[in-house]
Amino acid sequence: MSLRVRLNLLITLLFISLFICSSFYLISNARITVQHEVESTAHLALKLIQIAISPESPEVNESKQLNLLQNLSELDQTRHLYIDIQNPNSTITPVKEFNVLTQSNAPEWFVKLVQPPPTEIRQWFYNPTIAPTGVVIRADPSDEIDETWNEVRSVLILLFVFIFLANILVYIAVGHYLAPIDNILDGLTGIEKGHYQLELPHFRLPELDRISQQFNHMAKVLLDSKAKNSLLTQRSLEIQEEERRHLAQELHDELGQTIAAIKAVAVAISNKKDVDKEHIDASVDTIVEYSDHIYQVAKNMMHRLRPSVLDELGLIKALQNMIDDWNSRQDDIFCHFTFSDIPTDLSESLNINFYRIIQESLTNVLKHSSASKVSISMEKFKLDGVDKISLIIDDDGVGLGENKTMSGLGVPGMKERVEMNNGTFELSSIPNQGIKIEIIVPVINKS
Q1: For residues 175 and 179, what is the distance between their CA atoms, to the nearest angstrom?
Q2: CA max distance for the chain
Q3: C-alpha distances out from residue 238 to 161, 224, 225, 270, 273, Å
Q4: Run of H or E residues at 253
Q5: In this structure, are 412 and 324 located in the same domain?
Q6: What pLDDT, on a 0 to 100 scale, did the predictor assign at position 275?
Q7: 311-320, long-range: CB within 8 Å, 24+ apart, which pairs?
Q8: Hey, which bits of 96-174 come out as E strands?
Q9: In the chain, how many domains are there?
């Protein structure tokens, strides 16, 4: 069921509830009005009879009073009053047949809802001039019910027409204002298919317009992320090829030439007929020297591929060794490293990523910053009940100028490593005041 149908169904139910409550209110008031009107009419007739046979009347004689009582008893056609008058000796007026609601034009259901309890008044009057007189007054509410029905019917018809027209208007208005939802759904479908260049237009409704703006922002972020991912993928492939080329060059230049030299020494020994001990010792020393060189080259290659000190001594010791080695090779810049409460059982992913991020940062500082001091600090802290590690790398170099970007400094790769571990990465820079990198990563221990 669509949103438009659901909204209109809900509004229709509200209108129906309004109609029912209004009908109940009108019928309740109608029942009270009919009852009050019938009772007041009956009591008015009784009051007239009291006045007619009052002993204080200036012209009191039996014939006149009897004649007046007979005239009062003939008020049957006025407001449907039925009056019976009699005395102990004779009936002044014959008892009439009393049928309630025989002439009502209102529907039967309405009559049953508003019909008041039967109204009947009985009273005896005593006068010195005439015999005791009994009066029975009964009221038929047909006229009042008919009048009330005409009024209620008009109001209910007007209310029904209003609700019907309002419901149609609401249906049209809801359909008109919710029409942009189809555009939003089409846009989401396009995003699902990878069409991140899509943009939604501005909508008249503020809520939908905010959704449109957020959608366009999301599409732009996804498009930028796709472009960055493409660059990272391309850069990753370039790095792989560069590493392979470097390894191939080292294998050729270092290992290949050294092995060839060892082979030449061995061939020279075998080709010489008279080999003295001095020559053999010199050849052995040469072979040992070349073997040591091969071992050192292989060790450097293995360290480049994977720092074994991470597995042997842990993250902090590996970082200390790397930073000490870096400081030993620099004369004009010094790196100060501090740490606090860093677990020794961090996951493999955190260890290698922290190591590579700091390694890349030191390389960037050396190449681009012209700094004299670098500060690296790591500490564990608790945030919202979760253990996290903070890494801050700060230098006092030239920073990023207005026209410089971060893309060439290996920052996307570092940010990608942080986001792989559900962390946050922030880089800030002030010209001529250096660059500051702040990283927060949740602690993940070895499983």
Answers
A1: 6
A2: 183
A3: 75, 21, 19, 46, 53
A4: none
A5: yes
A6: 63
A7: 314/344, 314/351, 315/342, 315/344, 315/346, 315/350, 315/351, 315/354, 315/355, 316/342, 316/344, 316/378, 318/351, 318/355, 319/354, 319/355, 319/358, 319/376
A8: 119-127, 130-139
A9: 3
The span from the CA of 206 to the CA of 213, in Å, is 10
Q: Does 335 lie in the same domain as 287?
A: no
**Residue 114 maps to a domain:** yes
The encoded tokens of residue 212 equal 């449109």
Sign, Cα dihedral of 189, 191, 195, 196: positive
Buried b / exposed e across 409-418, counting CB within 10 Å, b at 16+?
bbbbbbbbbb
Residues 253 and 322 in one domain: no
Tokens encoding 291: 């073997």
Range of the structural domain that residue 89 is part of: 3-95+102-176
3-class state of residue 137 by DSSP:
strand
- pLDDT computed for residue 439 by the predictor: 94
One-character DSSP codes across 266-330:
HHHHHH-SS--HHHHHHHHHHHHHHHHHHHHHHHHHHHHH--HHHHHH-HHHHHHHHHHHHHHT-
The two three-digit tokens of residue 110, written as one number: 């309405």
Neighbour-count burial of 102, counting CB atoms closer than 10 A to its CB (0-12 exposed, 13-18 middle, 19+ buried)? exposed
Hey, what amino acid is at 83? I
* Strand bridging mode 334-340 / 373-383: parallel
- Token pair belonging to 89: 């000796």
Q: Mean pLDDT, 10 residues at a time, over the chain (447 residues)?
A: 78 88 88 84 77 58 62 58 66 50 74 81 71 75 82 88 88 81 85 84 84 89 83 73 77 76 77 70 80 78 72 86 90 91 87 89 86 92 90 88 56 85 89 89 85
Q: What is the CA radius of gyration of the chain?
A: 53
Residue 379, pLDDT score: 94
* Structure tokens that stand for 50 in this block: 């009291």
**Amino acid present at 109:** W
